[in-house]
Specification:
The chain is mainly alpha-helical. The chain has one domain. It has 13 helices and four strands. A two-stranded antiparallel ribbon has the order 1-2. A two-stranded antiparallel sheet has the order 3-4. A hairpin with a 2-residue loop joins strand 3 and strand 4. The C terminus is likely disordered.
Length: 358
Amino acid sequence: MNDIYFELTAFSIAVFCGIVLIPLMIRIGHRYNLLDLPGQHKRHKKPVPILGGVGLFAVVWLSIGISTLVFPEQFTDFSDMIIFILLGALIILLVGLSDDMRPLPAWVKLIAQCAAGYLLYLGGVTVEFLTIPTGSVEISSFSPIITIVWVVMLTNAINLIDGLDGLASGVSLIGAISMLVIGHLYEVGGSLIFILPMAGYLFIFLFFNRYPAKIFLGDSGSMQIGYYFAVYSLIIPLKSYTLAALYLPLLALGVPLLEVFSSFVRRFLGGKNIMKADRRHLFHYLTLFGLSPNRVVSVFYLLATIYGAFAIAMFYLNRALMFGIFLFFMVVIFSVFYIFITKLSSKRSNFGQKNNVR
């Protein structure tokens, strides 16, 4: 029963603070010109505040602070980790906010993300083994490197899909809900504090971030969400000592990780800088193909829900069977996107040939 009170308290604090802080962040953004301005390659037509990440940081850590005081017994297993997690989150917030104000070189952001990952390793939030559906491999000797790569990958995953109103915040909310369910299944107790406040904040934030958005997450928000997902997905196996506890959260984040994988492959094969932003993400292709932004967002919400359902189902059902179905689903998704991209490229080529004839 105490767990229920703890979870309700953490979530309620986040919801209440979100209701208060988000409108305040919007006003501060307009007053002090902390805005994302319209431009040639941007979809919004009016300046939009970019302080969603500041609100997220405040809500998450206020909720953690109050919950620590009210329910200290929930934090005994990882009380020593909290300061390292906080410092890592602060690094992500500051570098993201700096990038929102004035774009930073990719290597600066990468160094900051690596530093945040290394802090987690120092605090004991680390990967000690890699899991696959059939077993595990101990990797303690490579823990620092793998933990850093893990954090960098998930930190950038949400950032890559933050291109349409409500896309990153909605997909992240669905992923957070899926991971909360997984956390309950593995009885990870107090570690839910690293995902509950974020879910509560995103629940309110989405009302302000839907089209037409009144506030953006900014890099400070999208990277921070990925960071908290990384923290939570590392803590679940530490608490549960269960082989599947590491890769099930990854399935819940299937949509952003699909974007990471496709972007990496596309840029690598094209000989381009894998850290340099572009406008060739999956959601860009869908809008270019003719789908409205709202429909694209709905498609990604559906995919996020399906991925979350896969992750939860693998706890109950035969994991080898479910993993096989999941791989088949991935092939189907890639095939559909490939058809979209091929047809779009063909249309563009034909359009160019007609113009040349004229």
